[in-house]
Amino acid sequence: MNSITLFAAGSLRLAFTPLLAAFEQESGYRVEATFGPAGMLRERIEQGERPQVFASANLEHPQRLVALDFAQAVQPFTRNRLCATVRNIPELTQPDLLTLLCDPQWRVGTSTPVADPSGDYAQQLFERLEQCLPGQGSALRSRAVALVGGPDSAPIPAGRLAAEYLLAEGLADIFLGYASYANALAACVQVKVRRLPTVLDFKVTYGLCLLNEGSVAAQALVAFILGVRGQRILQRMGMLVLD
Question: CA 243, CA 241: separation in Å to the nearest integer?
C-alpha cells in the first residue's frame, strides 16, 4: 500500500481523523499524519524534514514554504474562529464576556504566538480589544499567559483537550482557543464554551500546500480534502466552510 506523509496543525486532529480514515478507505492509500503547532512543523520542514503535504492553521506558514521554493502554491481549504472556554462557574458563565476579559482577576491562557497560529490569533483579538477599548487590549496582552503550543510548553495528556485540561488543572480561568473544539468540549461539564462578542469575533483561514508535486498519492489527498466529501467531513467536525 502506498503511504503519504502529512504534517497538519494540531487543531485539525479531530477533523482529520475521520477525514483521513475516509480517504484511506476510498483511495487505498495510507496516511502517516503528524499533528502539532503549525509554526513548529513549518520549522521542521525548513530544517530538512519532507512531508508530502502540509496543512496549516493559517496561510502564512505555507506561504513561507512557497517563498522558499519548497512548494508551488497555497490552497485555502477551511476556516475556523476563536472562542473562549471558561471554568463552569456562574462568575464566568453569566457576565458579559467582554467584561470578563477586561477583569484582571481572571487568568487568561492562550497558545504560543509564532509557534502556533492560535497564539497569533489571540494577539489579533487583543488588538481588536485595544481598538474597541483603548488600554484594555494592551493590558490583556500583558497578563495573558501562553500555556500550550510552544517548544517549551508542558504536554497535554493523551485523550485530554487542551482547554479542558488547562482549566481543570487551575492554570487559567479563561482559555482562548478554536471554536471547532466546541462540540467536543460540550461533553466536559467542568467547562463552558462561550462565543466571542461581535467586536472581537473574526474567522481565520487554514491553508495547505503540496510539497511533493510528483506524488500521485499526495495529489489525491489534497483533492480529497478540497472535494465535496472532505469538505463535508470538515464541517461536520466543527470547521467552517470557505466563503
Answer: 6
User: CA 194 to CA 91: how far, in whole Å?
Assistant: 13
Residue with cell 472562542: 83
- Taking CA atoms, 148 is separated from 77, 152, 162, in Å, by 25, 8, 8
For 243, other C-beta atoms within 10 Å of its C-beta total: 7
pLDDT the model gives residue 108: 98
- Strands 3-9 and 53-56, by their bridges, are parallel
pTM of the model: 0.95
